[in-house]
Amino acid sequence: MESNILLQPVVSEKSYILANAANKYTFFVDAKATKVDVKNAVSKKYKVTVTDVNIVTVPGKLKTDWVRRLQFRKSDMKKAIVQLKKGDKIEEFLNV
């Protein structure tokens, strides 16, 4: 299951500031992923040492379909903030 845990890196100003200033990297992950799964997946994919993982569930937004007059909620997303060992970097975040 480790290969399907990391969905994509989060592209935002806050995530790039965290990456450059505090060596923390942010990823959207699978809804069933645990901290241990995320730690192992990041270590294996980017060949870095992970020291800490925090996970946040971002609630889905409420949307309205104005044609059919229906309201629905988009699915929740899980976001993982990964702290790396001092000196380790993920190049994918630095090139953008």
Sequence-ordered SSE layout with sheet pairings:
Elements lengths: L5 E4 L3 H10 L1 E6 L5 H12 L3 E9 L3 E4 L4 E4 L3 E8 L6 H4 L2
Plain-language structure description:
With 96 residues, this protein is an alpha+beta fold. It has one domain: RRM (RNA recognition motif) domain (Alpha-Beta Plaits), CATH 3.30.70.330. The chain has three helices and six strands, in the order βαβαββββα. It has helices at residues 13-22, 35-46, 91-94, and strands at 6-9, 24-29, 50-58, 62-65, 70-73, 77-84. A four-stranded antiparallel beta sheet has the order 1-2-6-3. Strands 4-5 form a two-stranded antiparallel ribbon. Strand 4 and strand 5 (70-73) form a beta hairpin. It is elongated and about 55 Å long.
Query: Would you report the number of β strands?
Result: 6
Q: And the CATH topology?
A: Alpha-Beta Plaits
What would CATH call the architecture?
A: 2-Layer Sandwich
CATH superfamily: RRM (RNA recognition motif) domain
The helix/strand order is EHEHEEEEH
Strand order of the largest sheet: 1-2-6-3
The CATH class: Alpha Beta
Number of helices: 3
Residue ranges: pLDDT <50 for 5 or more in a row? Answer: none
From the helix content, strand content and strand pairing, which structural class follows? alpha+beta
* Beta-strand residue percentage: 35-45%
- DSSP helix fraction: 25-40%
Give the tally of structural domains.
Answer: 1
